[in-house]
Design brief:
homodimer, 463 residues, alpha+beta, v583 fold, Enterococcus faecalis V583 fold, 2 domains, 5-stranded mixed beta sheet, 4-stranded antiparallel beta sheet, 16 strands, 18% strand, disordered N terminus
Chain lengths: 463, 463
């Protein structure tokens, strides 16, 4: 074994030599402009340290299990004409193309209009209501549109009984969540409503509580998935866990085969379980006075918003950025909509862009290199409260993923959270145009810090 | 993106600093003792360079697809009383405990004896015949015992029509291939014969040619599997590929559920497809005069043997070594049998121990560290003819796996092929006792080199 170890050093040394740069490390960075006073206040808040410890502990204590699959009307109480969407609150007049496209598809899917093109007038006139997924214990990728007839995964933390929800993933290409609304989109949604949802419900109920989504995430991180842009192993493990119950579900064999084909052919299917699992864990860290831990990052295609444990349900928002990355076919940067979707809940929970080191295969998709991937994860440790012992990265010698984004660390270092994301076309109806990397608008963190400082000052003798 | 790249360098530099050693590289090693003259002869063989190019090209040109699952009696023509085994040829009197145990289980499974304990007398008396799997286009893990009633995976390379075969994987613990033969072993083998085999046959025939085993191996290497001791992603992808056909197979729902549960619960199931896929590719490189490429490494629990392209079907053998690694429960090194099984066909094809870098999770199982894993793969590039563009390792910036073990490079550097392996108990009936790392006995390479030199001299004006 000794000679093998020696060669290991050789490999790493060569990698550095190949990059022909001196060895060094930057230990100090200037804080974000204008944050010095608030940083001093929050740093001396007597609640902060214990509050963050509790927030991280609460997060790490959650195990998300799949307990049901059921229509949104039933599990969220959504009524005809009510729609949920990704990100912080927004109105139709400020909604971007892909969000509008997703809402148009959903309106047609619900039978509120015959032609999706007739929907905008009804949204403009205020006939329908819009509300964020996050306000209903739910999350949705990209446009994140949920309507009453859509089927939802239901995840539960047995210890607390808390639940979170997410719709079923449609696959790639022209799909509602990327803002497409043509007939292929609606036909697929109807099949998902009539066949996929009811079939998965039977399997989920037959196995209730046996499918450990948090545990599958542990395994995925050992299998090249970062659980945001790559969910291949997770999807396969979901199929494995449900397949015996699917076999005995009594569903027509041809329909069952189609369910296997659809799920097995969509490497992103598990994203819609990873996201609510992350939300379930992060929700446990909410509402702890003094905690500077970020509990949600979400985008509606216009605004990027964060929520912080110590500041309750308040959103701190700024303009969503356009990702940098690679484009499909002839699309280019001018075709891309600003960042959209609740899927940054994965990064908020320490995976996705935070776990890039474990998914070198994904860096090509988003336009980076393998060293970029390793470095991205290392950088995120500089702005997080701790590591997750259940979610570790083999190639980093099984170090836990960076967990619990700390508003104070972000403001003090200027390092912004790294997000992997798909890119939607900015024109409603387009669909996906690419995938890339993006960060939040920097200003949301000083805004959250200011509010934390204000609350700390309100509690006592502070700077 | 720029700052991310900078941190990437930081990471690698830190890894070197942490190991506190000077940066350096060893470029020269002494050749194996006594090989100088033969190395000179083979190095100047005018056939060698082109022969090795052809051998590697033939290997790389093979695509293995699953075309059938059928009993060994049918596809190999095995008759009652005939048994195949792993490794080079051996007789009962020299067979180790786990090989004897596997043969005893198979004799009882075939109904040749009622009690496995009655089988040794019949093997001793010469009532049964033994033959290597490799002499029948087959491979078998560990004991590698095949008897007529066992069902076999049938893989085919469509371009050449060549086929290879392997039995179905039983799972871990007390199983025939580790030399166990109690009632649980026989009960499982009967269920595999009566339910698993026929069910997989229906799915394999319904999807004939659609399951691309070579392509699944490509994906596995991006998902933490090295395809010898870790086959989790491969097993999941096999299930995915077969599940639609399984759903419409007409098999009783309860049996189908049990098939899903058995395969999904056995992360090693795909090993028995990885192995014949490797053999199918390596067989294409056989029998090329002058080629110094190893086309088989196999162990019967007593002898370790290699076959080389330029030397036909001749085995070069030496004593199998006892692996070093980790032991299950209370077992220790004294309980371990020497190296056994045809599974080193994976390393011969550039995966398994040669692809350790892509499977850091496996290094803990075999007692190593993450740098060991990276280093093992890099070392194997020093003794191989080339890289496999279809099987690449993400964390090594998508470098192809080291492919085509070159007898001359092994003799010139003294670097032995690195093999990952399970360890069987040396007493028949024990089962698995651990997992670890092992190498071939060094002397098989000079022996093969001497024969290559002899053949080269026979062809013309050589040293």
């Amino acid at each position: 074994m000794t000679t093998v170890v020696t060669s290991g050093i050789d490999l790493l040394a060569t990698a550095v030599e190949d990059q022909a740069v001196p060895v060094g490390r930057v230990d100090w960075r200037p804080p974000m402009p204008g944050t010095a006073a608030d940083l001093a206040t929050v740093a001396t808040d007597p609640l902060r340290s214990e509050a963050n410890r509790r927030a991280l502990e609460a997060f790490l204590g959650v195990t998300a299990r799949l307990v049901d699959v059921a229509p949104a009307a039933e599990v969220l109480g959504l009524e005809r004409g009510q729609f949920l969407h990704a990100g912080p609150p927004i109105t139709w007049d400020r909604a971007s193309g892909p969000l509008r496209g997703g809402l148009m598809a959903a309106a047609a899917f619900e039978g509120l209009v015959d032609d999706p093109e007739d929907a905008p007038a009804l949204f403009e006139s205020g006939s329908f209501t819009l509300d964020p997924c996050h306000h209903h214990h739910a999350v949705g990728p990209m446009a994140g549109v949920v309507s009453p007839s859509m089927w939802m995964f239901v995840l539960e933390d047995a210890a607390s009984g808390r639940r979170t929800f997410c719709s079923l993933n449609e696959g790639l290409g022209k799909v509602l969540r990327y803002g497409a609304y043509d007939d292929t989109v609606l036909t697929r949604l109807r099949w998902m409503r009539d066949v996929l949802g009811p079939t998965l419900q039977r399997a989920a109920r037959a196995t209730a509580g046996e499918t450990d989504v948090t545990g599958i995430l542990t395994q995925m991180l050992q299998m090249g998935d970062e659980a945001h842009n790559r969910n291949r192993a997770g999807t396969l493990m979901l199929l494995r866990d449900l397949s015996p119950a699917l076999a005995t579900s009594g569903v027509d064999a041809a329909d069952l085969a189609e369910v296997f084909r659809f799920v097995g052919g969509n490497d992103h299917f598990f994203l819609n379980l990873a996201m609510p699992a992350c939300k379930l864990a992060l929700d446990a860290a909410r509402d702890i006075p003094g905690s500077t831990m970020v509990v949600a990052m979400a985008r509606n295609g216009t605004d990027f918003g964060i929520q912080v444990s110590g500041t309750g349900d308040e959103w701190f928002t700024g303009p969503a950025q356009v990702p940098e990355g690679l484009f499909l076919g002839d699309y280019g940067p001018d075709d891309a909509n600003p960042d959209i979707g609740d899927s940054a809940i994965t990064e908020t929970a320490g995976i996705g862009g935070f776990a890039m080191a474990t998914a070198p295969a994904i860096v090509r998709l988003v336009g980076g290199s393998v060293p970029d991937a390793l470095a991205a994860t290392r950088r995120m440790h500089e702005i997080t409260l701790g590591e997750n012992p259940r979610w570790s990265i083999p190639v980093l010698e099984f170090q836990g993923v960076p967990t619990g984004i700390d508003v104070t660390r972000v403001c003090r270092t200027g390092i912004l959270p790294q997000i992997n994301t798909g890119m939607a076309g900015k024109v409603a109806g387009t669909g996906q145009v690419g995938a890339g990397l993006v960060t939040p608008p920097a200003e949301v963190f000083p805004a959250a810090l200011a509010r934390l400082a204000e609350l700390a000052r309100g509690r006592g003798d502070h700077l």
